[in-house]
Amino acid sequence: MKKTMLVVSLLGMTTFSIGQAVKTAVIRVPTVQCQECKERIENYLGHEDGIQKIVVDFKRKTAKVTYLTDRINIETIKTDIANSGYDADDIAANPEAYQKLPTCCKKPEDGGGHSKKN
């Protein structure tokens, strides 16, 4: 009985994974400033259907996204990042979302960012 259940479970997982291409992309996010920016983007995109993993590196200003190509595409992912208030490659941040960001998450020319201590 246990063997039958195991076989059925494995067949179900195999069927589920067939036809789903997984792709990883690195997106430039030049306006991320801090840990809070990282968490904001990761949380925002973490709920999107088709995104398997997202890791934002605010020091390198990149977002590495692993996603299912049959559920979401790279342009939608970039648009989602822009809708959270940050630039994503060639897509500018949504102005309304950007204005709602905390001061530390805004661009230095807008009075944001973290000042470096000497």
Explain this structure to me?
This protein has 118 residues and is an alpha+beta fold. It has a single domain, classed as Alpha-Beta Plaits. It has 4 helices and 3 strands. It has helices spanning 2-17, 35-46, 74-83, 95-100, and strands spanning 22-28, 51-57, 62-68. The chain has a 3-stranded antiparallel β-sheet with strand order 1-3-2, with helices on one face. The radius of gyration is 18 Å and the shape is elongated.
Question: Which key terms come to mind for this protein?
Answer:
alpha+beta; three-stranded antiparallel sheet; 3 strands
Beta content comes to 15-25%
- SS element count, helices: 4
Helix percent reads 25-40%
Class derived from helix and strand content = alpha+beta
Termini distance? 68 Å
Biggest sheet: strand arrangement: 1-3-2
**Global Rg:** 18 Å
Give the tally of structural domains. 1
Task: Spell the H/E element sequence.
Answer: HEHEEHH
CATH domain class name: Alpha Beta
If you average the pLDDT, what whole number results? 85
3D shape: elongated
Low-confidence runs: 4-15
Q: Note the main sheet.
A: 3 strands, antiparallel
By DSSP, the count of extended strands is 3
CATH topology: Alpha-Beta Plaits
CATH-scheme architecture: 2-Layer Sandwich
Short structural summary:
This protein has 118 residues and is of the alpha+beta class. The protein is built from four helices and three strands; from the N terminus they run αβαββαα.
Layout of helices and strands:
Layout: H1 2-17, E1 22-28, H2 35-46, E2 51-57, E3 62-68, H3 74-83, H4 95-100
Antiparallel strand pairs: 1-3, 2-3
